[in-house]
Design brief:
The structure holds two protein chains of two kinds. In chain A, helix 4 links the parallel strand 1 and strand 2. By secondary structure, chain A is α/β, with parallel strands linked by helices. A six-stranded parallel β-sheet of chain A has the order 2-1-3-4-5-11, sandwiched between helices. In chain A, strands 7-6-8-9-10-12 form a six-stranded mixed β-sheet, with helices on both faces. Chain A is elongated and about 60 Å long. Chain B is mainly α. Helices cover 76% and strands 1% of the residues of chain B. Chain B is built from 16 helices and two strands. In chain B, strands 1-2 form a two-stranded antiparallel ribbon. In chain B, helix 5 crosses helix 15, helix 6 packs parallel to helix 8 and helix 7 packs antiparallel against helix 13. Chain B is globular, with a radius of gyration of 20 Å. The N terminus of chain B is likely disordered. Classes of the chains: A alpha/beta, B mainly alpha. Chains A and B meet through helix 4, strand 7, helix 9 and helix 10 of A and helix 5, helix 13 and helix 15 of B.
Chain lengths: 345, 339
């Protein structure tokens, strides 16, 4: 697919078309009244009304979640008009509900919530909304749109899709190509979505067959152990998609220990170690599909403009959108430098 | 309850099944029925593996892989077996492995090298074991509670040290031990450590006063005390021993995975307890064997290996693992009661 060979070109292209559309919009409206879009108080970095943002997230027991917290904190620090009230992360549903209720009682202006369990925390999201505090729901989605004003998160299905397309393009022209999948925790919905996207993408490439799939547990240890078994089970294959770069540290270790280098590997999430390995280009890891932790910074941006009653710059609407799904870009050797700063440890 | 339950049952174990041929009977008199039944289960698994995936399963590399994967949890299980024989339990083993591995790898990033990592892992393991032991032996805390508290705090501390980040080890001398080049006569160094720990564990349990005291404390603590055994000190040493095993296991895990992570050793406590129980160790104390526990670990690792080779998904794996635990214990009951 062309977008993978010239992704940056596509991005710039879209930007150019967007700018063009905006220009035509402005010129065509010039003779008439002031265009509606220009009235819109779009967000910018200039200090505005003071906003207190409450942030409640799960326990950062994983590199990605830790990056989420870091992103939220550093973004809030950037704005002189933002005060961030951050609670201690917890994976305990009852405890997280308690923390969010404390933030509601403190009467913060906007809440940013990354629930440990979206379904279980829906009620407290509703409670905040009813108390007049708009909620930015980060990543793990609540059960009902009534519980949030705006949802921003990653695209698990898209991760699988883009990983599948990348591998498909790389193996194009190779007959009877075999791929294997090292999935994440199988009891998580997101793991199923990632696998579904991957399978759907592979349907476009009849020459490729997925011959094995094993689920690890998002940990280095499980990644090493499951990958070692997969390598033993599959004496020959052409590509591997690993759902998560953290468990990928273990998977890469198993690959190294088995002395295998006869296939290409695509990771997932966007860890710094993965970016570095892709840049060095001396192993099997050739690319990783993003699940950007920068979404937490964007959630702070959205919370700020929501608190100030503004819209988003670059969009015609008066209000911020109801839902934003981030793009799971494929990072390979060609564009890794651009993403290096977003890599998490 | 253990004092009258275990000694008679121990003696019945040695009695061969009725109707067995005299030669068979003679053999049975020398070998533990339980151990033989475990070997039978393992042989059956090897047969299944060999039939379903002959090329992949019956391969030297696969044998090396299974033994390597058994090593880390195996070392933990040896320590756990001592604790359970003494009538105790150590729920903190997985958390101690996690804490020892991240502490050691945080030191590693500060470049203290191989010795730094090994020393730190072992010291942290022993330190945690010491805390467990003191709380249980001298603080009169129930082992379940004391080690549960250690589980929570060691995991918390591991998370705090790492900040949720994976500590990647870059010291070649450590990493090289996990590579194929380091195998001696085809045996991976990790497997050698596991073998040495198993042999020492067997010798200590069966050939030393320490071992006899451990069984005595587990069988009947009061009788042990009257017999002049310092029960409290014995308990302290046992949790120290378990902590030491965790420290060694953490070092092995660092070699294996090339990193330290706060999620390391996840659910090791349950795997080690399950392996010991399958191996014939009484959860109430007073009886158990190192060989049985090690066979328990090998059975588990072989199952996992066969599942992965046949590309079975994790839900099927979990169900089958549970069924096999039940089956193994039932088979043991059967063999033990056919007197």
């Amino acid at each position: 697919m062309p977008e993978f060979t010239s992704r940056r070109g596509l991005l710039f292209g879209t930007a150019a078309v967007g700018a063009g559309a905006l220009l035509t919009g402005c010129t065509s409206n010039e003779s008439k009244d002031e265009p509606a879009a220009n009235d819109q108080p779009a967000a910018d970095d200039k200090p505005g009304k003071q906003v207190t943002i409450g942030f409640a997230g799960p326990q950062a027991d994983h590199g990605w979640l830790n990056a989420i917290n870091d992103n939220a904190k550093s973004r809030a620090k950037k704005y002189s008009d933002v005060t961030l009230e951050i609670t201690e992360g917890s994976n305990d549903t009852a405890q997280q509900i308690g923390q969010i209720e404390t933030l509601i009682n403190k009467k913060v202006d906007v809440l940013v919530i990354l629930p440990a369990d979206g379904k279980a925390l829906t009620q407290v999201g509703l409670k905040a909304m009813r108390a007049g505090i708009p909620v930015i729901n980060l990543d793990r989605i609540f059960n009902t749109p009534q519980a949030y004003r705006c949802w921003i998160g990653g695209d698990n299905y898209g991760m699988g899709l883009n990983a599948g397309h990348y591998i498909g393009e790389k193996l194009k022209g190779k007959s009877d190509a075999k791929v294997i999948e090292l999935a994440g925790l199988d009891n998580l919905e997101l793991t199923k979505q990632r696998t579904q996207g991957f399978d759907d993408a592979l349907k476009n490439y009849p020459n490729i067959k997925k011959v094995a799939r094993q689920a690890a547990e998002f940990t280095v240890e499980s990644g090493q152990s499951k990958m070692a078994q997969l390598l033993q089970a599959q004496s020959k294959f052409d590509a591997l998609w690993n759902h998560d770069d953290d468990q990928g540290v273990g998977a890469l270790r198993a690959i190294e220990q088995a002395g295998r280098d006869d296939f290409l590997m695509v990771g997932g999430a966007g860890a710094l170690s993965a970016f570095q390995a892709i840049k060095k280009d001396d192993g099997v890891l050739k690319a990783t599909v993003l699940y950007p932790p920068t979404m937490a910074a964007s959630a702070i941006d959205l919370a700020r403009v929501l608190g100030q009653g503004k819209g988003v710059g670059g969009m015609a609407e008066f209000e911020i959108p109801a839902s934003i799904t981030l793009y799971s870009a494929v990072v390979d050797k060609d564009n890794v430098d651009q993403y290096m700063s977003t890599g998490f440890k | 309850m253990t004092q009258h339950a275990s000694p008679p049952r121990d003696s019945t174990d040695k009695v061969p099944p009725t109707g067995a041929a005299p030669a068979w009977r003679g053999l049975m008199a020398h070998a533990d029925v339980r151990t033989l039944s475990l070997l039978g289960v393992l042989a059956a698994l090897i047969l299944i593996g060999g039939i379903t995936k002959p090329d992949e399963f019956l391969d030297t590399r696969n044998l090396q892989l299974v033994l390597t994967q058994a090593s880390v949890i195996g070392v933990v299980t040896v320590g756990m077996t001592f604790v359970i024989i003494s009538g105790g339990i150590d729920l903190s083993v997985g958390a101690i492995v996690a804490l020892a591995s991240v502490w050691a790898t945080t030191v590693a990033t500060q470049e203290y090298g191989f010795a730094g990592i090994l020393f730190t892992a072992v010291i942290v393991g022993v330190g945690c074991g010491l805390v467990n032991g003191v709380l249980i032996a001298y603080g009169a805390m129930v082992p379940f509670i004391a080690t549960l508290a250690m589980l929570a705090s060691a995991r918390g501390l591991a998370l705090q040290i790492t900040d949720g980040k994976t500590q990647i080890v870059t010291i070649p001398s450590v990493l090289d031990l996990g590579e194929r080049d380091a195998y001696v006569l085809g045996i991976p160094p990790l497997v050698m450590v596991f073998a040495v720990v198993t042999i020492i564990g067997w010798l200590v349990l069966n050939r030393t006063t320490f071992g006899r005291r451990t069984v005595a404390v587990g069988g009947n603590p009061e009788a042990a005390r009257l017999a002049g055994i310092d029960v409290r000190r014995q308990r302290l040493y046992l949790y120290l021993l378990s902590g030491l095993c965790c420290g060694i296991a953490a070092f092995l895990l660092i070699i294996l995975s090339g990193s330290g992570q706060n999620t390391n050793g996840n659910l090791y406590e349950l795997d080690a307890i399950a392996a010991a129980i399958i191996g014939g160790t009484l959860l109430t104390g007073g009886r158990g064997t190192i060989v049985g526990s090690v066979l328990g670990v090998l059975i588990f690792t072989t199952i996992t290996n066969i599942f992965a080779l046949n590309n079975l998904q994790s839900d099927v794996q979990q169900i089958a693992k549970g069924a096999i635990i039940v089956a193994a214990v039932l088979v043991q009951r059967r063999t033990a009661s056919t007197t």
